[in-house]
Amino acid sequence: DSGVTQTPKHLITATGQRVTLRCSPRSGDLSVYWYQQSLDQGLQFLIQYYNGEERAKGNILERFSAQQFPDLHSELNLSSLELGDSALYFCASSVAGMGYEQYFGPGTRLTVT
Amino acid sequence: AQSVTQPDIHITVSEGASLELRCNYSYGATPYLFWYVQSPGQGLQLLLKYFSGDTLVQGIKGFEAEFKRSQSSFNLRKPSVHWSDAAEYFCAVGSFGNEKLTFGTGTRLTIIP
Question: Which helix (H) or strand (E) holds B4?
Fold first, then answer.
């Protein structure tokens, strides 16, 4: 158990819908990272937040957005969903930024039908 | 841009045999290197990391990896594998000041009795 929690574990929704994935980092960690894992794209970094502010952006679509709240939990919002958005979405947390270990949550499996 | 190559998609070894998983990276600055393991349906667990110093690093579960700058490699080794080591292994690269972790495509390890 990494100490990072993600909800829900599974999510099934239809194309065009909007979903929110939630992540609670390990106690004391200020950084939260979001990753997408799919069969065709592999593991891709989406976005990082540090203490409430966006720190780095990767291959995140404009239909996707994220935020980190004052209690440091983070949410990833996915809108106008397409079949290709079906993937495992991981959240990771670290004490600060690069140079510190990232601890991964168990992931949310999103299926878009 | 940083990149990671794991040339072996799938490796099969006998229980008790030695293991080496290959990882080559491309990055202009001094890299931070990581190996993660992912069991089916699970999140990623950090096995070991290299930031600086001794180029042979020890990790959890009896794994070790050696950083070879001249070969741009960070191969993972284990002298004697156990059936519980069957999983997917990911090499990743990052660097100080660049928050994005770039992952390889992974190597699936199968253990035969």
Answer: strand B3-5
**Dihedral of the alpha carbons of B37, B50, B16, A106, in degrees to the nearest 10:** -10
Q: With CB atoms and an 8 Å threshold, state whether A101 touches B46.
A: yes
pLDDT one-digit tens code per residue, B40-93: 878 899 999 998 889 999 999 999 999 999 999 999 999 999 999 999 999 999
Structure tokens, A3: 């100490």
Nearest C-alpha neighbor of B22 from the set B83, B59, B61, B68: B68
pLDDT of residue A36: 96
SS3 (DSSP) at A85 = helix
Compare all CA atoms of chain A with the CA of B106 and give the residue at the minimum distance: A42
Please identify which residue in the block is written with the tokens 């699970």: B42
CB < 8 Å to B106, chain A: 42-43
> Does residue B110 contact residue B44 with C-beta atoms inside 8 Å?
no
